[in-house]
Amino acid sequence: MISFENIVKWIQAFLSAHLPHIWVLAVEAVIIIIAAIALFAILGLVLVIMERRVAAFMQIRFGPNRVGPWGLLQSTADTIKLIMKESIVPDNSDKFLFNLAPFMVMIPAMLILAPINFAKHFFIWDLNIGILFVSSISSISVIGILMGGWASSNKYSLHGAMRSGAQIVSYELSGGLSILTIIVLCGSLKVSDIITAQETGWWIFRGHIPAIIAFVIYMIAVTAETNRAPFDLAEAESELTAGFHTEYSGMRFALFFLAEYINIFIVCAVGATLFFGGWMPFHIGTWHAFNHIMDFIPSSIWFFGKTFFLIFLIMWFRWTFPRLRIDQLLNLEWKYLMPISMVNLLVMTVCAIYHLHF
Amino acid sequence: MFIVEYLKEVTNAVKSLATGMKLTGYYFTHHKEIITQEYPDNRATLKMADRFKGEVVMPHDANNEHACTGCTSCELACPNGSIKVITKFDINADGKKKKAVDQHIYRLDMCTMCGLCIEACPTDAIKMANTFEHSVPDRNMLVKRLNNNGSKIREGVE
Ligand code: SF4
Ligand code: SF4
């Protein structure tokens, strides 16, 4: 049967039969880099067109439907346009930081790919502190945003960057706490262990109400962390032109834009791993016949299906909810999400200790 | 009690957000609700609303007769001078002179579609049409004469 696991094994066997050990690693690294970049490019194209169509349908419109079948080539056309545009660097900007910032946003996004299990036994590096790695690296991306806003020497950019800093620092807390809630349940930070622990049912079902609360808080927190509406205060089109990327144009702007969508994909992949069992098919306890039927659907389809469901959820948020003001945003985090997720973590810990979950 | 208030606030927030998501979810799954008109693909079937103000026209009946008396009220009412009524004097059967419209000139390129001329007209001789394809190669084509060639005032309109 063709699966990602077998492809990886086959490449590994093929390379080690023909090359010395050190070269095998090097060639594999190159393959992974190319695959990661290809994944990013495809994700960018797919998510942008998906966002625009979803937005359109929710606003009782059609959205882009002229370029290619059902408008599917629209984002490709937009990318070509962006590539051909001049990328302007403002005169007074700090040139080095200005050019570095888009990459500082992209690099954390790339790093986070490492521990994610895309399919059964298909990952780049399943390190034993996987989830800790994800949550620590994801907080680095704010540096890129701060850098871009600071280096542009533009009051709007600076404002946007500062807001984004306040926002991400606050929402990391409740996001982290809701991740901890699941970690408490499975007792491991290793991504593949978290997934195998959900063999008899996904945590969102087995973890009772605390898991559902944790899931809701996680979704709110990651929406804020990825700077998306209703938490798009760092961009704030209505009052800050475009926030931290006001001065960016052409391909540098495209990198910021792409990073936003990549980040959405990553947080949704992590969410799917924690709450919906990653690539684990839908299993119900000890119903072996049912579980066996579910196993026939390839694990990669389960993983991408769940991830895209969560992405759709985030898009649904964006096109439904009104935006928050900066003080309301911080109120929501410090007065509501943080205390609730702390109590929630406590309840979940008690549940886990007394084995009250299924 | 504080904690009760707090929990009530949280449940209310969740409930109102869910209401919003229900509506957008409904629109997402029911594409027949889409209100976008795919003009010009649907040019043949496109139906404009009656209230749409496209241009000022003067309706003529089958005998090429209109209801304009040439009173120039519309010209006076127009805030930006888009209408110029050129009058003439008709000699009627018993040899009396009577004022009538010679040319009712309407400048579509200046009109703001405010509708004041229509309100001012005492005989309802002009009205708003809901046409909107006004683009022309030369702007002089937007200066229109509203009364038809050889048309005359309808019998009985004073
Ligand atoms: S609609 Fe208004 S602007 Fe146009 S001709 Fe009538 S009065 Fe003048
Ligand atoms: S269109 Fe009406 S207001 Fe204008 S001149 Fe004719 S009768 Fe008078």
Molecular structure report:
The complex is a heterodimer of chains A (358) and B (158). Chain A has 358 residues and is an all-alpha fold. Chain A has one domain (93-353). Chain A is built from 15 helices and no strands. Chain A has helices at residues 4-18, 21-58, 74-84, 95-112, 130-138, 141-151, 155-186, 191-196, 203-206, 208-225, 237-240, 250-276, 288-295, 299-318, 326-353. Chain A starts with a helix and ends in a 5-residue tail after the last helix. The model of chain A has no long low-confidence stretch (mean pLDDT 83). In chain B, a hairpin with a 5-residue loop joins strand 3 (83-91) and strand 4 (97-107). The longest helix of chain B is centred in the N-terminal third of the chain and has 28 residues, at 2-29. Chain B has two domains: 2-33; 55-153, Alpha-Beta Plaits, CATH 3.30.70.3270. The radius of gyration of chain B is 26 Å and the shape is elongated. The mean pLDDT of chain B is 86. In chain B, the strands form three sheets. Chain B has a three-stranded antiparallel β-sheet. Chain B has a two-stranded antiparallel ribbon with strand order 1-5. With 158 residues, chain B is an alpha+beta fold. Helices cover 24% and strands 21% of the residues of chain B. Chain B has three helices and seven strands, in the order H-E-E-H-E-E-H-E-E-E. The N and C termini of chain B lie far apart (77 Å). In chain B, 15% of the residues are buried. Classes of the chains: A mainly alpha (358), B alpha+beta (158). The site of one iron/sulfur cluster has 13 residues of chain B, from helix 3.
Q: Which chains share the greatest interface?
A: A-B, 15 and 16 residues
Q: Report the total helices of chain B.
A: 3
> What is the β-strand count of chain A?
0
Major sheet: arrangement of strands of chain B: 3-4-6
Low-confidence stretches of chain B: none
Q: Count the beta strands of chain B.
A: 7
* Overall pLDDT confidence of chain B: 86
For the record, the CATH architecture of the largest domain in chain B stands as: 2-Layer Sandwich
Oligomer: heterodimer
Q: Which CATH class of the largest domain in chain B?
A: Alpha Beta
Query: Radius of gyration of chain B, Cα only, in angstroms?
Result: 26 Å
Q: What ions, cofactors and ligands are bound?
A: iron/sulfur cluster
Secondary-structure element order of chain A, as H and E?
HHHHHHHHHHHHHHH
SSE pattern of chain B: HEEHEEHEEE
Provide the number of structural domains of chain B: 2
CA-based shape of chain B: elongated
The CATH topology of the largest domain in chain B turns out to be: Alpha-Beta Plaits
Helix/strand/pairing category of chain A: mainly alpha
Mean pLDDT of chain A comes to 83
Count of helical stretches of chain A: 15
